Amino acid sequence: MLRSFALFFFVFGCVSKVLCVQGSCGTRSEDAAPQGAVGCGCGQLRRDGAVEPVEDRTASEEPADKYSRGANERLPEGRADEKEMQSQMVLITGGEFLMGTDDPGIPADGEGPQRLVLLDSFYMDIQEVTNQQFQSFVSVTGYVTEAEKFGDSFVFEGILSESVKNQITQAVAAAPWWLPVKGASWKHPDGPDSNITDRLDHPVLHVSWADAVAYCSWANKRLPTEAEWEYACRGGLKDRLYPWGNKLNPKGQHYANLWQGDFPNHNSGEDGYIKTSPVMSFPANGFGLYDMVGNAWEWTSDWWTVHHSTDQQHNPTGPPSGIDKVKKGGSYMCHKSYCYRYRCAARSQNTPDSSASNLGFRCVSREQR
């Protein structure tokens, strides 16, 4: 089936003109993007959109290390207790919390108004679903993801091999670093010539919302609501930017896998990674949850809306219908100048059939699994 790719998607969530001036606590964030920051165009990406021809790369191609491939890249170390860790969930004790913010980093995303939400207790996976977990699911069920059915998925140009990149003739008009790649899927996250052999403990990628729902159902779990996700992200802290507080790098330490350097041209890998990292590579938040921001975007169950009631809500589930689903947390591609969405209150959206090289998920349940 022939489809024209483009402006479908989400990838690290952005708007055409991002004004990231203040943090959600009323003071200027140390990593807030400057006024007039260039938008990434991802919010408009859709499978049924239009792409444009890729410019001739031969004359203007920068050196092969343009995106710092291999910089500080670490091979994942095997964990003896990996199977046990994969199924571990933690109880998130219910209660009231302030959802959203009255001082949005990206107003157009519907980050506000701040409102009081009451949640019942639930259990959440301490980590994003890994390649190994998803592989087990596929082995048992024979499940085929939507990216595999479509025959392609979006991949960030910087992680593609030169041979694959040179075969691609189209790119997303508003974000030319996103390319539709035939053969890209959860098994081949960086294109058809890549595999997951050395990254079984990394988050599974190229999974659509429906793929994530299928996995969670198989595991007798479900996707979190946006309210559950944000409550869990905050880790018991009130009105803070990140799962650990207001400073991005307390005492110079990295608490999430994000982009360092000049996006999209150079990722210095100061946090140790230039692509996804093994789950649990960074400190957990107050609830014992890892990678709630950065690494990979995470699907939620809610339909997208930018209009929210200020009335107190109990276990809100979002609007009854819509076009896009909410995703939270940002990814390894988030940088202050392009995608200031690695905050707990930040949010973005994509169509349920969307998939890309920086989007994954985790599951929740009302009972311990």
From TrEMBL:
<dbReference type="InterPro" id="IPR042095">
    <property type="entry name" value="SUMF_sf"/>
</dbReference>
<comment type="subunit">
    <text>Monomer, homodimer and heterodimer with SUMF2.</text>
</comment>
<protein>
    <recommendedName>
        <fullName>Formylglycine-generating enzyme</fullName>
        <ecNumber>1.8.3.7</ecNumber>
    </recommendedName>
</protein>
<comment type="pathway">
    <text>Protein modification; sulfatase oxidation.</text>
</comment>
<dbReference type="GO" id="GO:0005788">
    <property type="term" value="C:endoplasmic reticulum lumen"/>
</dbReference>
<dbReference type="GO" id="GO:0046872">
    <property type="term" value="F:metal ion binding"/>
</dbReference>
<feature type="domain" description="Sulfatase-modifying factor enzyme-like">
    <location>
        <begin position="87"/>
        <end position="364"/>
    </location>
</feature>
<dbReference type="GO" id="GO:0042802">
    <property type="term" value="F:identical protein binding"/>
</dbReference>
<dbReference type="GO" id="GO:0120147">
    <property type="term" value="F:formylglycine-generating oxidase activity"/>
</dbReference>
<keyword id="KW-0325">Glycoprotein</keyword>
<dbReference type="GO" id="GO:0043687">
    <property type="term" value="P:post-translational protein modification"/>
</dbReference>
<dbReference type="InterPro" id="IPR051043">
    <property type="entry name" value="Sulfatase_Mod_Factor_Kinase"/>
</dbReference>
<keyword id="KW-0732">Signal</keyword>
<keyword id="KW-1015">Disulfide bond</keyword>
<feature type="region of interest" description="Disordered">
    <location>
        <begin position="51"/>
        <end position="84"/>
    </location>
</feature>
<keyword id="KW-0560">Oxidoreductase</keyword>
<dbReference type="InterPro" id="IPR016187">
    <property type="entry name" value="CTDL_fold"/>
</dbReference>
<keyword id="KW-0256">Endoplasmic reticulum</keyword>
<comment type="function">
    <text>Oxidase that catalyzes the conversion of cysteine to 3-oxoalanine on target proteins, using molecular oxygen and an unidentified reducing agent. 3-oxoalanine modification, which is also named formylglycine (fGly), occurs in the maturation of arylsulfatases and some alkaline phosphatases that use the hydrated form of 3-oxoalanine as a catalytic nucleophile. Known substrates include GALNS, ARSA, STS and ARSE.</text>
</comment>
<feature type="signal peptide">
    <location>
        <begin position="1"/>
        <end position="20"/>
    </location>
</feature>
<dbReference type="Pfam" id="PF03781">
    <property type="entry name" value="FGE-sulfatase"/>
</dbReference>
<keyword id="KW-0186">Copper</keyword>
<dbReference type="InterPro" id="IPR005532">
    <property type="entry name" value="SUMF_dom"/>
</dbReference>
<keyword id="KW-0106">Calcium</keyword>
<keyword id="KW-0479">Metal-binding</keyword>
<comment type="similarity">
    <text>Belongs to the sulfatase-modifying factor family.</text>
</comment>
